[in-house]
Amino acid sequence: MSAGKVPMARLDRLLANLGYGSRREVNALVRDGRVVLDGVALKDAGAKVPVSPDLPARMTISGKPVDPPAPLTILMHKPLGVVCSHKEAGRSVYELLPHRWRARMPGLSTIGRLDKETSGLLLITDDGPLLHRVISPRSHVAKRYRATLDRPLGGDEAAVFAAGTLMLEGEADALAPAVLEPLSPTEAYLTITEGRYHQVRRMFAAVGNHVTALHRDRIGGLSLPDDLEPGAWRVLDEAGLAAIFA
Ligand code: URA
Known about the structure:
Helices cover 20% and strands 26% of the residues. The chain is α+β, with helices and mostly antiparallel strands. It folds into 3 domains: 8-65, Structural Genomics Hypothetical 15.5 Kd Protein In mrcA-pckA Intergenic Region, Chain A, CATH 3.10.290.10; 73-136 and 221-244, 2-Layer Sandwich (Alpha-Beta Plaits); 142-219, Alpha-Beta Plaits (2-Layer Sandwich). β11 and β12 (187-192) form a beta hairpin.
C-alpha cells in the first residue's frame, strides 16, 4: 500500500467479510449504534470506512475492538494433537482462533502444514500471495525443526542431508540440501527449504532412524517467541512478516 492511501470499504460488506453476520445482521448492529469509529457511532451501513491495519484501535463493535481486517497473518504455537487441515479428522488449529473467524472472507489457511504430532511455529494467513511466496521452493525460506530421535546419530547424517542427492521413497526428485546440527546423540536441528509430505520424519527414516518428537522453532528469520505457550497465537506485525524473508 502506498503511503497515505488507505483503502475504503462499505461498512456492511467489511463487517460481513469479517464474520460479524449476514448483511442484514450487520445492518442491525449499525442501526443499534453498536459500531463506533473514532468514538462516533456510525449510522449508515452503506458508508465507506477506511480499512487500515490500525482499524481495531479505531473501531469497536459492541464495545470491543473490531477484528483485524485482511490481509491478516497469525503466528501460532501449534500444540501437539491438533491437525492443520479442515478435512482431517480431529481438532484443528482453526478451532484455537475466534469462532467468528471461520466466516471470514477471504478465508484463513495454514502456510504449509505440521503433522498432528508436530508442535511449534505455524503461520496462518488470508494473504494468498504471501502464502505462495513462503511455500515456494524458489523462495528458499528455511524451516528449522528440532528432532528427537529413537537411536543415536551415526555421524554421517549431516553429509547425507547436505549432499542434495537424498531420494525419499516413492519420489522422483532428490531433496534439496539440508543442514543438520546435532545437539546431543539423540537430538538435532534440521533445517530444510522444502515442504514435502512428512519430510523430516522421512529423512531420518532414510538414514535408518526414527523421529520420536518434532518441533518447528523457526521459519526464515522468524522464531517462535519463548513466551508463546502451546495453543497461543498473535497477529504477526510488519516486522514479523519481514523477518520471514530476512
Ligand atoms: N516434517 C515432518 O515430518 N513433519 C512435519 O510436521 C513437518 C516437517
